Amino acid sequence: MVRPVALNRPECCAEPSLPTNVKGVTNAMRIQRQFTSAGSSPYDDIGFRVTSSEIRNPDGSMVFSQDSIEVPAEWSQVACDVLAQKYFRRAGVPAADALEPVAEEGVPSWLWRRRAA
């Protein structure tokens, strides 16, 4: 029988003793907190700023505009524009609650496509 070699682990990486059942199997998975503090939001250490985003065609006409976007303070204006253009809802796009399901044979109701009501 081959016995496993004991690893010399630093104290920060030592495996904590976990509760086990009768067969010796651990009952819970534990994840040690690394980058945040208990009792505080992970966003407390990040500075934010409010900005606006405008994307224009070469002729100067407006393609996209969004005001009052809250972004991390270290982000560039290009990063803010990408966020606003890709992930924020635009005018003319129906909100999710304004869509009605379209029944499809052989498809569960939660997978039905939706169309504007």
Give a short synopsis of this structure:
Helices cover 9% and strands 22% of the residues. With 117 residues, it is mainly beta.
Task: Give a verbal description of the structure.
The protein is mainly beta and about 120 residues long. The model is unreliable at about 1-5 (pLDDT under 50). Strand 1 and strand 2 form a beta hairpin. It starts with about 45 loop residues before the first strand and ends with a strand. It has 1 helix and 4 strands, in the order ββαββ. The strands form 2 sheets. The chain has a two-stranded antiparallel sheet. A two-stranded antiparallel ribbon has the order 3-4. The longest helix is centred in the last third of the chain and has 11 residues, at about 75-85.
Which tags fit this structure?
flat; two-stranded antiparallel sheet; 117 residues; 4 strands; 22% strand; disordered N terminus; single chain; mainly beta; 1 helix
Which secondary structure elements does this structure contain, and how are they paired or packed?
Blueprint (H helix, E strand, L loop, with lengths): L47 E9 L5 E11 L4 H11 L11 E3 L12 E3 L1
Antiparallel strand pairs: 1-2, 3-4
Order of helices and strands: EEHEE
**Mean pLDDT rating:** 78
Q: What structural class results from the helix and strand content?
A: mainly beta
Query: What is the share of helical residues?
Result: under 10%
Determine Rg (CA atoms, Å).
26 Å
Distance between the termini: 69 Å
Unreliable spans are 1-7
Q: Using DSSP, what is the number of strands?
A: 4
Q: Strand fraction band?
A: 15-25%
Strand numbers in spatial order across the main sheet:
1-2
Sheet with most strands: 2 strands, antiparallel
Helix count equals 1
